[in-house]
Write a structure and sequence with these properties.
Number of domains: 2
Strand content: 15-25%
Number of helices: 12
CATH class of the largest domain: Alpha Beta
CATH architecture of the largest domain: 4-Layer Sandwich
Shape: elongated
CATH superfamily of the largest domain: Ribonuclease Z/Hydroxyacylglutathione hydrolase-like
Length: about 400
């Protein structure tokens, strides 16, 4: 069912209530998601983005109930990734000559995925498409989060169609930011940024500054996933500006795996030492083999420091910690302190492996770490607490 945004713009996308993993299996989506497509009608009619391929037939059928497809004058592809372009092959079968406005990189992406030579119209930042009484202004936004990404701004209505920028994986029939649970909304927005956009923070800062410098009035931000920002839409822009500046809160996060609970007991004792030293700091513990990895990465994103622990297994670490170290390396977190810990029974290489991984990921490793033999006794747990106090002091 279409949702009216104003007298000329309708949401014609798809809410995916069942989605729990995205980007293959890489991203958890506890609250589902949506694939937002927008129909803009003036003297000319434009469709902005489509939906993911599994919903293509449903999308085209629903779109036919809203408009004769042959009345669509233009299609705008803000981004070529399949969750936004997946319905294009079916749609273009219905209206094959319709021009598709996109960046040069998007042409490469769409041709590479669908092997079709559609009527592409390449646009650059500042170019306009007249719809009659209104224009669409195109703004290239490379690496937010693909090289082909762009935003589209609708004059008169003052709407920014931002594709993956400012989005969240959050399903709701209440499609506007002022109607949904604010805590859930902002957590999902932060999770989206932390897990997808963090590596491109410098480009986020640059692009936001560029957009603000255009002095375009802004009444609504319409992303391609999740909720539409209509009440004070700049609030999410302001959050992005903060998140892009090596963001951190007064939080220390533990990420550990454990075989026979020795490393878990160490984590809990170190955490207690941190709390004894600093009652104000938030401390969170996650078993990386059990907790959702994207939730963990979101907590690392918001932390000023992390402690990573694993027992030694085959001269290395448990697989969930190895995977975590690879994830943080790719995300390029900045301005965060770290240290390693772990129990061992034979050779004890895990701490060195973790410290090396943290350093390669850009963390400031502030300690040689703490390594304990076998299951910690009372004396060893006291050493853990002291280690926690020292680590807390290094984070002040």
């Amino acid at each position: 069912m279409a949702i009216k945004l104003n007298n000329s713009v309708r949401w014609v996308g798809k809410i995916d209530w069942e989605l729990r993993r995205f980007h293959g299996e890489e991203l958890s989506t506890h609250h589902g998601s949506s694939y937002n497509s927008y129909l803009v009608q003036d003297q000319k009619t434009v469709l902005i983005d489509t939906v993911w391929g599994p919903f293509a037939q449903e999308f085209v059928n629903d779109l036919k109930r809203e408009i004769d497809l042959h009345q669509i004058d233009y299609i705008v592809a803000n981004h070529g990734e399949p969750d936004h372009s997946g319905a294009l092959p079916l749609l273009m079968h219905e209206i094959p000559g319709t021009p598709i406005y996109c960046t040069a990189n998007a042409v490469k992406s769409l041709k590479g995925q669908y092997h079709a030579d559609w009527n592409f119209k390449v646009v650059k930042t500042g170019e306009r498409l007249s719809l009659g009484t209104k224009d669409l202004i195109f703004i290239e936004a490379p690496m937010l989060h693909w090289p082909d990404t762009m935003f589209s701004y609708l004059t008169e209505d003052n709407i920014l169609f931002s594709n993956d920028g400012f989005g969240q994986h959050y399903a709701s029939h209440q499609m506007f930011n002022d109607l949904v649970n604010q805590e859930e909304l902002y957590y999902e927005a932060m999770k989206y940024y932390a897990n997808i956009l963090t590596p491109f923070s410098k480009m986020v800062t640059k692009k936001i500054a560029e957009i603000l410098a255009l002095n375009l009035p802004l009444e609504m931000i319409c992303p391609s996933h999740g909720i539409i920002w209509r009440q004070n839409p700049l609030q999410i822009v302001e959050r992005y500006q903060k998140w892009a500046q090596d963001y951190q809160e007064n939080q220390i996060t533990f990420v550990y795996d454990t075989m026979w609970n020795s490393t878990r007991r160490m984590a809990e004792a170190i955490a207690e030492g941190i709390k004894q030293a600093d009652r104000q700091v938030e401390v969170k513990l996650f078993n990386s083999a059990r907790a959702d990895k994207n939730d963990i990465l979101t907590e690392v994103f918001r932390s000023k420091a992390v402690l990573v622990g694993s027992p030694t297994v085959n001269k290395g670490v448990l697989s969930s910690i190895g995977s975590f170290l690879e994830e943080i390396k790719g995300l390029s977190f900045k301005n965060k302190k770290a240290a390693a810990f772990g129990a061992y029974g034979w050779s004890g290489e895990s701490m060195a492996t973790i410290s090396k991984g943290l350093s390669e990921a850009g963390f400031n490793v502030v300690s040689d770490g703490l390594r304990l033999l076998w299951n910690p006794d009372a004396e060893s747990l006291a050493r853990c607490a002291d280690f926690g106090k020292e680590f807390a002091a290094s984070c002040l």
